[in-house]
């Protein structure tokens, strides 16, 4: 399930994609309908990874670190929430054996979870911030 933190991150990133210039944290919080302090912590994480650039000072704010077409939903979600996989045994980025697993090769759940991971990744990796701006993406974010 998509966390509220990831929803705020995606909403803020979409708002940045809509802008030609920078946007203040306060303005982003209003537009993303997110608590400002919480959103600032999220933006700090996004800035560390280069997805956003922050400018300090009186005329400071945030802007995208790359073109909107080059930032996909999967990248933002993985950064904020971690792997897309429903179980660690099918994760591409954080693989580990499930605690109660007797045998990966004979696990009755694994094939379905692999397919779910692949389908989810395909959709989210293929959907950029530019796509969300063009389609307004509200239905994806519950907005």
UniProtKB/TrEMBL annotation:
One of its GO terms (cellular component) is cytosol. GO terms for molecular function: DNA binding; DNA-binding transcription factor activity. InterPro entries: TR_Rrf2-type_CS, Tscrpt_reg_Rrf2, WH-like_DNA-bd_sf, WH_DNA-bd_sf. It comes from the Bacteria. Pfam families: Rrf2. Keywords: DNA-binding. This is Rrf2 family transcriptional regulator. It comes from Caulobacter henricii. The lineage of its organism: Bacteria, Pseudomonadati, Pseudomonadota, Alphaproteobacteria, Caulobacterales.
